[in-house]
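Backbone-to-sequence.
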C-alpha cells in the first residue's frame, strides 16, 4: 500500500467512533476499490470483534481493499459514520487466492485444485463475517449480511460460493444451502484458527438458484434481487423492530 493510501487509511480510522445501538440501519453493497473509507470502517469493526475473542487479523492494511474482485456488504448507520457489521465476497482469480486457501491450504492442499476447477464458471468465498457487540443477537452482522451477499451475488459472474464456518455459523449456513465439503480435512472439519478450535469447509453450488436453501431465505433473497433498493421494518432478536434501508 502506497504512503498516500496509508495516510488516508489512518485518517479514516481516526474518524471512527463508538457505535450506539441503532433503530435504523442501512445495508449496502459496493466494490471494495470504489469506497476506501467504508472499507476501513469495515476492517476496523472486524478487527475489534476478533480482538475481543483474543484473535488478530494479519495486517492493518489488507490487500482486499485494493482488489477489484472483492465486494463488500456493509451494515451501517444511515449517515455512514457508524459500522455495525458485514461480510465480503471474494471472487477467485489466478492472481488472488480465496482467503480460505491461505487459511487452510498448508494442511489441506486439495483445496487449491478444488477452487481452480471451479474458477472458469466463477467461484467465490463469503468471508469476513462480523457484527458489533452493540447489535449482538439481532442477526444484523450474520443472517442479514449473508442474505444480502447472496442477493448481490446474482449480479456477479460467479456460479458457486465457499464459506469457512465456525461451529456456530455452520448451523446458520445450512439455511443458505451451504453443505459440508466432506472430502477436505476430517469430514470437512479442520483445526482453525488454532489447534484448540475448528472450522468447517462449506459450499453452495449455485448462488443464483440457491440450491438447498430454506424457503424462507429464498423468499428474502429473491425479493432483494427483484427490488435491491427498499425500506422495510424488521423484527430482529428480542429488540424492538428496526427500519432497514437496503441499497444493493
Amino acid at each position: 500500500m502506497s504512503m498516500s493510501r496509508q495516510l488516508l487509511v489512518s485518517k479514516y480510522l481516526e474518524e471512527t467512533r463508538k457505535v450506539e445501538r441503532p433503530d435504523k440501519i442501512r445495508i449496502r453493497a459496493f466494490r471494495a476499490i470504489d469506497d476506501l473509507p467504508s472499507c476501513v470502517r469495515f476492517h476496523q469493526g472486524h478487527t475489534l470483534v476478533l480482538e475481543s475473542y483474543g484473535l488478530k487479523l494479519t495486517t492493518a492494511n489488507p490487500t482486499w481493499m485494493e482488489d477489484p474482485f472483492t465486494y463488500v456488504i456493509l451494515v451501517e448507520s444511515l449517515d455512514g459514520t457508524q459500522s455495525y457489521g458485514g461480510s465480503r465476497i471474494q471472487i477467485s482469480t489466478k492472481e488472488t487466492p480465496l482467503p480460505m486457501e491461505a487459511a487452510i491450504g498448508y494442511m489441506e492442499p486439495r483445496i487449491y485444485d478444488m477452487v481452480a476447477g471451479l474458477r472458469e464458471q466463477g467461484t467465490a468465498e463469503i468471508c469476513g463475517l462480523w457484527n458489533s457487540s452493540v447489535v449482538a443477537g439481532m442477526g444484523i452482522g450474520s443472517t442479514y449480511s449473508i442474505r444480502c451477499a447472496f442477493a448481490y451475488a446474482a449480479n456477479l459472474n460467479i456460479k458457486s460460493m465457499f464459506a469457512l464456518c465456525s461451529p456456530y455459523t455452520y448451523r446458520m449456513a445450512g439455511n443458505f444451502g451451504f453443505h459440508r465439503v466432506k472430502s477436505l480435512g476430517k469430514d470437512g472439519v479442520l483445526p482453525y484458527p488454532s489447534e484448540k478450535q475448528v472450522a468447517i469447509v462449506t459450499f453452495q453450488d449455485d448462488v443464483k438458484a440457491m440450491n438447498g436453501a430454506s424457503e424462507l431465505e429464498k423468499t428474502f433473497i429473491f425479493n432483494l434481487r427483484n427490488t435491491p433498493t427498499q425500506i422495510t421494518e424488521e423484527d430482529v432478536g428480542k429488540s424492538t423492530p428496526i427500519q432497514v434501508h437496503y441499497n444493493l
